[in-house]
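Following up on my earlier thread - several people asked me to post the actual chain instead of describing it. Fair enough. Here it is, all 124 residues.
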Amino acid sequence: MMRALVVDDSRFIRHYLHSLLVDHGVDCVEAADGRQGLDCLQRSGPFAVALVDWNMPVMSGFDLLRAARSDHAFDGTKFVMVTAEAENDHIEAALLAGADEYLVKPFDEAGLFDKLRMAGVDEL
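Reply from S.P.:
Thanks for posting it. Predicted structure:
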């Protein structure tokens, strides 16, 4: 069974992503900020994909992405930024830092799964 990590400080977004993923047979773990997300990666991995918000307390999703991409233990994990940050400089920075895809909020189920396929998450 494919495993996904959802990292977002919005409980609503975490639960929405969780429900979409579980409906597709994905085992889903949630974290409320970047620090919790990094801890989950280190303790509860491996994950096929991590869906990460940009703006969060404690540690941003961008800092989580940079930390994870500096550790080869997470080379097999696809990272998709899921954020309201729609400016090209944010998208470019995330992709340069190692994000596999970038999904702008608000999004729908079809948009989510299109981005997951584009990121190379093949198990869906």
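The CA atoms of residues 52 and 114 lie 16 Å apart. That should answer part of your original question.
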